[in-house]
Design brief:
Elements: E1 2-12, E2 19-30, E3 33-42, H1 57-66, H2 70-85
Antiparallel strand pairs: 1-2, 2-3
Length: 102
């Protein structure tokens, strides 16, 4: 399973560029099976303020992941993909393939 974390967007203060919210996404792919999750993490000014123009996605991802249960999120995505591969439940009605003679 290939897992990719990305930052979709950042909210920041106009006055100084302080990032207040990071919107993240994680996608898991295993062959033709996929699962994803997304969310937001809020921040306050810290001692290690980095100007907005100098931020990298890797740095912001590190901040985001430090506030999340990354292993649990990735395990949940793996479980979704496992369910896709071998479903324990399906939906449908038995008469869906019947042809009406009316």
């Amino acid at each position: 399973m290939n897992v990719t974390w990305t930052i979709s967007n950042l909210d920041r203060q106009v006055s100084d560029g302080l990032v207040t919210t990071a919107h993240w996404r994680v996608d898991a792919v295993d062959g033709e099976h996929t699962a994803g999750a997304y969310g937001s993490v809020g921040f306050t000014r810290g001692d290690d303020f980095i100007p907005f123009e100098q931020l990298t996605e890797a740095q912001v991802l590190a901040w985001v992941k430090s506030q999340l249960e990354v292993e649990q999120i990735e395990a949940a995505l793996a479980q979704i993909i496992a369910e896709q591969k071998s479903p324990s439940k399906i939906a449908g009605v038995p008469w869906a393939s019947e042809v009406s003679s009316e």
